[in-house]
Amino acid sequence: MRMIPYNSFSDELNDVLRQVRESHEPLLVTCEDSRDNIVVMNQFDYDSLMETARIYRNPVMRERGLHGMEQS
């Protein structure tokens, strides 16, 4: 995952957000206190990640997904 310090992130916001959108790669924005770090990602990728997590939390859906992959 690419990383960028917060100051650079805020100074180059438009360019950085464009790069995140185009690359579909999450970006770690780092701060002096690592508890304040944030991850920036494309909404489509975020939605996909959340849907995958939702499926894996449901045992029936997880089994169907695994069975479907075996069929491929």
UniProtKB/TrEMBL annotation:
Protein name: Antitoxin
Similarity comment: Belongs to the phD/YefM antitoxin family.
Record-linked InterPro entries: Antitoxin_Phd/YefM, YefM-like_sf
Function: Antitoxin component of a type II toxin-antitoxin (TA) system.
Domain of life of the native organism: Bacteria
Pfam families: PhdYeFM_antitox
